[in-house]
Design a protein that fits this description.
Layout: E1 4-11, H1 23-26, E2 37-44, H2 62-73
Length: about 70
């Protein structure tokens, strides 16, 4: 069994962290972007927490997470 695993995390933003310029002015009924977001994280199986690889950052694709883990293990 490997010490690290790559996990998929899905979450839906609350609309408060919108990156659109002037969002609060033009999106009066809430931001149209709060769709399901997917991030990939590397988990340390010994602790169950995010691994201390690159500061525990998240990755937008599984490929990026695998590359970061491979670099860390090399």
């Amino acid at each position: 069994m490997s010490r690290y695993e790559i996990h998929k995390e899905e979450w839906r933003p609350d609309g408060m962290d919108c990156q659109h310029p002037l969002c609060e002015r033009f999106h009066t009924r809430g931001c149209p972007e709060p769709r399901l977001r997917t991030e990939w994280v590397i988990i340390d199986t010994l602790t169950g927490d995010r691994a201390a690889i690159a500061g525990g950052q998240t990755y937008s694709t599984k490929r990026e997470a695998k590359a970061a883990l491979a670099k860390h293990l090399a």
